[in-house]
Write a structure and sequence with these properties.
This protein is an all-alpha fold. It is 52% helix and 1% strand. The chain contains 13 helices and two strands; from the N terminus they run H-H-H-H-H-H-H-H-H-H-E-E-H-H-H. Bound molecules: heme C (HEC) (2 copies).
Length: 300
């Protein structure tokens, strides 16, 4: 065999190996695809809320969650958190958070039990994480955990008061927490005074309606649970009418002329327009209604 022949046969063998490896990889990809599809289709994955992930999966998910939040919180500059703020934050915490997260000496309510992931102890969180990360988590919520976003419930200023309270939790004894609560009136004032607060929300009132923010609000208020809305992803339940083309319809709910003012009115107080409507009052603020109306207006 001369040199040239040897090189040719080496090349041929290499070519054959490449083809075989190629076929093997393609077969593997197809098999994985079929496996994954079957796994989904035959319901092999147990979605029970009591079926904890395996330790490695749990660790990776937590890492992904922590990294994601840290990345997004980097730009946030916390204000100085005073004890006066913490006192306001405590009232909100008791109404909206304690049922899931508990408090010093207070266990999780039925809602917060039996969840996976379990709502964490926030005294621990306050030690492990920075105020900006806590703020981000509360404002934006955490997908696929059950932690809601509160940005359409509270202003940024209000969220900082909650953060101020959480920051105090690591040092708070059960007795101290009980003493704080002892002075509360029977019915602590509902914290949701977004419309009167002198806040960024108020400043924004003068601003042009923001349709992008309006689109986010459609998720924030759970509109997508009842309506099919172009540009959003949801359960397509059709409890309410699909909103495709709502921007060019003559009437809202068949009774109001479709103007911007009327749309804002409908979104905020549908039961004032029609006491028997199945569309509930969702506590929509003026600004949020304007932003949502701006988005709906684009649907043609
Ligand atoms: C319906 C139950 C529920 C309610 C109500 C709720 N949370 Fe959560 N919260 C969760 C769950 C579940 C997680 C995510 C657990 C995880 O990190 O895996 C979470 C995560 C968090 C985190 C991030 C914790 C961490 O260690 O990174 C913060 C901060 C937080 N919640 C604060 C609040 C505040 C403040 C409120 C009230 C305004 C609130 N939560 C209301 C269930 C809830
Ligand atoms: C619990 C289910 C439910 C939720 C949540 C809900 N809606 Fe509705 N919506 C309805 C129903 C039902 C109607 C029809 C009302 C009627 O005709 O009396 C309706 C009507 C409407 C209409 C008028 C549609 C038309 O064809 O004229 C608009 C616009 C609308 N909803 C927007 C929203 C927005 C935006 C949100 C979130 C802030 C929302 N809805 C939340 C059930 C819901």
């Amino acid at each position: 065999m001369n040199n040239q022949d040897r090189q040719d046969s080496v090349r041929k063998i290499r070519k054959r190996i490449e083809i075989h490896v190629g076929i093997a990889i393609a077969a593997l990809v197809v098999a994985m695809g079929v496996g994954a599809a079957g796994f989904v289709y035959w319901g092999a994955y147990n979605v029970s809320a009591l079926q904890q992930h395996t330790e490695p999966v749990f660790t990776i998910l937590n890492l992904a969650l922590d990294r994601s939040i840290r990345q997004r919180a980097e730009e946030i500059e916390p204000p100085s958190l005073t004890s006066q703020m913490a006192e306001q934050g405590r009232l909100i915490y008791q109404q909206k958070c304690v049922q899931c997260h508990g408090a010093p000496g207070v266990g999780r309510d039925d809602v917060g039990k039996g969840m996976t992931p379990v709502p964490p102890n926030l005294a621990h969180t306050a030690k492990a994480k920075g105020a900006a990360e806590v703020f981000w988590s509360v404002k934006h919520g955490i997908k696929m955990t059950g932690m809601p976003s509160w940005q359409f419930t509270f202003t940024d200023e209000q969220i900082w008061t909650i953060v101020a309270f959480i920051e105090q939790m690591p040092e708070m004894s059960v007795a101290e927490y009980q003493a704080m609560n002892a002075n509360d009136s029977e019915d602590p004032a509902p914290p949701r005074d977004v419309t009167t607060a002198s806040t960024s929300a108020e400043v924004r009132n003068a601003a042009e309606p923001d349709s992008e923010r309006g689109k986010l609000a459609l998720y924030g208020y759970g509109c997508i649970a009842c309506h099919r809305i172009p540009g959003t992803v949801g359960p397509h339940a059709d409890v309410g009418p699909p909103l495709k083309g709502i921007g060019e319809r003559r009437y809202i709910a068949g009774v109001l002329a479709n103007t911007e003012e009327n749309m804002v009115h409908w979104l905020r107080h549908p039961t004032e327009v029609d006491p028997l409507t199945a569309m509930p009052d969702l506590g929509v603020t003026e600004q949020d209604a304007r932003d949502m109306a701006a988005y709906l207006e684009t649907l043609r």
